[in-house]
Amino acid sequence: MKVNPILLEVFKNRFSSISEEMGVTLNRTAFSPNIKERRDSSCAVFDRQGEMIAQAAHIPVHLGSMPMSVKSAIQNVTMEDGDMVILNDPFKGGTHLPDITVVAPVFAGEDAPSFYVANRAHHADVGGMSSGSMPLSTSLFQEGIIIPPLKLVDKGEIDRKMMSFLLNNVRTPKEREGDFAAQIMGNITGIRRTQELIEKYSLETVDFYAKRLMDYAERLTRHAIEEIPDGIYTFEDFMDDDGFTQGTVKIHVSVTIQRDKAILDFRKSNPQVGGSINAVHAITLSAVLYVFRALVERDIPTNDGVLRPITVQTLKGTVVDAQFPAAVAGGNVETSQRIVDVILGAFAQALPKRIPAASQGTMNNVTIGGIDPRNGNPFAYYETIGGGMGASAADDGESGVHSHMTNTLNTPIEALEYSYPFLVTEYSIRRSTGGEGLHRGGDGIVREIQLQSDADITILSERRKLPPYGLGGGKPGAVGRNVIIRSGKRMEKPGKFSASLQRNDIVRVETPGGGGYGKKGAGSQESESSKHRA
Questions:
Q1: Separation of alpha carbons 243 and 467, rounded Å
Q2: Rounded to whole angstroms, how far apart are CA atoms 10 and 420?
Q3: Res 149: pLDDT
Q4: Of 189, 217, 245, which one is at a domain's C-terminal end?
Q5: Beta strands in 144-266 (DSSP E)
Q6: Domain closes at, from 162, 194, 217
């Protein structure tokens, strides 16, 4: 069959729209604010081998790693029509335990699945030693319930025994059940739309263009790599600490560009640590996919073809390829950001005009749990907080946004106060925290919450000691701060901590600014927006 370029574009958009509609269904039917409001979920379509064909514009750290979950489900469970498989095991295709993936086969008149659809959603609690399941842990077993690939839906019926087992191991079972149902409905939407596509064009045609879309993405990625000068570019940056020791944790990359191929070697990164900032290999792969997709300036489908020209080298037992049963709760959210920082730092040597300075480099994870005095029920709140984006050769960095490996929204104040016993006492831009330069880094955020009940809190954050780097002579962004305020007394806390708080205590999170770009006053006058913000 010969490729019709018009049909190729049609299928590119049809596959992407299936993923997007899955996400709309999931978000609109979810129970938790984390999924419904913040959209902390992702959807994608896969071929019969588990290769990603297309994804929605959701969460980069989810989507680059989801193919491993789909392949793990295919390898471990025989799926029939109407089945769905659930998993979250980081060492069987997952990333960290709150991210639960649901995989469903798409049958089209054959004995075996012709395609798969899948979604991943961050559940606000999956058990473990602390509310929100993002603890300062030293072992995977402390972080929550570990789910290997298992059937949650069998021939169209939810396995009630499996569901009961899952709900008996979490703090907020009604909310979790609602979110599981939303994930199931998201996949049902994907199945229906994929089958409609096959009915219109035939299985042979849909399968053919799915493969050609991956080839297309590969060609354009190779073209983008060819535009990078051949050579070896190295960079390293550091995590503040692992939450238990004060020592920094090195992440190192060596990028080798050879014509239309790239090799990224992370093997000089530090060994895995005792705390929960270890990343599994899937997370490192996600960060690599994200950066290279960003380098391709054309509107191409983000699929497995992007990774074909790229080799990722890691060493088992390091912080970028942790081994079981390492603690990994923070690796997905914090270490993934630093992996992006080091890859971009390496590319800045080859493409100085195209690479921005470091963004805030953290997701500022906040989890709060307790008993809601309004109804006597347990609650578990989870949120990541935006910050400053790095400036570039073209412009200032954006202020108060999620960047790089996260693409979530904020929880609106009204939704937050309605769902939880909280009072938001401040939510503002943290002025003048972006790094100075010809172009200034974006400013961070101040998020201040007063508790209306006793509660336990855990914060996993970074860039509290080591600032986001500037480029081309630009200054670093300001580091972040975590503060507890009790009866007017401010108690500054480290980047990673847990605490039991009392009613009326205030949790204040001040997020980092982005790095600046270029020397201030060099080449041209400082931008009007920089003057205004300063």
A1: 17
A2: 44
A3: 97
A4: 217
A5: 150-154, 157-158, 231-239, 249-258, 261-265
A6: 217
405/65 Cα distance (integer angstroms): 12
d(CA 40, CA 50): 23
- Cis amide prior to 98 (ω within 30 degrees): no
CB 272 within 8 A of CB 278: yes
Q: Tokens 């929605």 — which residue? A: 56
In this predicted model, what pLDDT tens digit does every residue of 315-332 receive, in sequence order?
Answer: 999 999 999 999 999 999
In a domain, 229, yes or no: no
pLDDT at 527: 44
The amino acid present at 416, given as its one-letter code, is L
* Helix-then-strand count for the chain, H and E: 11, 20
Task: Give yes or no for a contact between 404 and 337, defined as CB atoms under 8 angstroms apart.
Answer: yes
Residue 534 pLDDT exceeds 50: no
323-382 per-position pLDDT tens digit:
999 999 999 999 999 999 999 999 999 999 999 999 999 999 999 999 999 999 999 999
Question: What global pTM score does this model have?
Answer: 0.94
Is 68 inside a domain boundary?
A: yes
Give domain status of residue 135, yes or no: no
Token pair of 500 as six digits: 């039991």
| Position 530 confidence tier, pLDDT thresholds 50, 70, 90 | very low
Angle at 375 between CA 369 and CA 378, to 5 degrees: 25
- Whole-number pLDDT of residue 522: 63
Number of domains in the chain: 2
Domain of 499 in residue numbering reads as 356-534
For 55-70, letters b (16+ CB in 10 Å) and e give bbebbbbbbbbbbbbb
Q: Cα(532)–Cα(287) distance, rounded to whole angstroms? A: 34
Would the pLDDT of 73 be above 80? yes
* Residue 13 belongs to a domain: yes
SS3 57: coil
Between the CA of residue 356 and those of 125, 286, 416, 476, what are the distances in Å?
Answer: 35, 19, 33, 12
